[in-house]
Predict the structure.
Amino acid sequence: MTEEIKIPEEHPRAESLPIREKLIKHFKSGDVTSAGLIAHGRGEALDYILGEKTTQPALKATKAAAATLLTAKHPVISVNGNTAALTSKDIVKLSKITRAKIEVNLFHRSSEREIAIKKLLEEAEATEVLGIGEAASARIPEVGSERRRIDPKGILIADAVLVPLEDGDRTEALVRMGKKVIAIDLNPLSRTAQFATVTIVDNIVRAIPTLIKVLNKLKTKNKKELENITSTFDNKKALGEAIDIIHRRLSKLAERGVYLPILEVEEP
Ligand code: ATP
């Protein structure tokens, strides 16, 4: 068991440290892999650079993602270890609002991990979890990893798939299969972010609750209004804006160097 660490609210890492602890706990129980921990580190580094908050381009992408899910006939949420460890409750809420199916899809697939992740989702009150064991009997063409295995009742027939923390190969293949792919990825340069139809460049722990809020606002809109949101969204532009935020923030910080209130220590 990971020891509970009490972090003062004013600590600059008050939000990120408990997330790390949560992932370590789920790594020890086998839900998260060592590669998942490394992926989180990549994401966290980009989150520092983005300022650890939801940006305007991320909000715009979230609105397009919500409209895509609301207009889809067969929306599916693909869940991996990190996603289940960090946001199972919100994933279940999201699936209820959008009537999206939940499917477990793992790069490092083993029946123990599949079952452990299914259990996490069921503890969060998921009523149906697809993609477990033999149920993942269909295959995505041209994907070499275990992520090619999909459920004929889920991703195979989906027209829109939400893929938080995905790998690039599968995103590209899903888009090639004609599906709309919504990615949540803090790295606007990852292949996933680049290939997706809608990329939300934000931390999953903020992105899913924001998506739920936006869905609650948009769910009363009619089909035409929702389709207008999706057709006017330009993912290339949104990615460019996210990269520009990184660029401008780093330029500002570069001018100042030290930006934390660090005390000047006098030479003895
Ligand atoms: P790609 O194959 O898409 O080029 P990759 O090789 O980095 O990227 P993965 O390891 O599957 O593929 O990527 C996981 C992605 O998830 C990384 O881009 C990482 O920045 C991002 N990520 C990690 N943790 C979070 C998080 N909490 N919220 C959002 N994104 C995250």
Q: What stands out?
A: The two ends are 45 Å apart (CA to CA). The chain is about 50% helix and 10% strand.
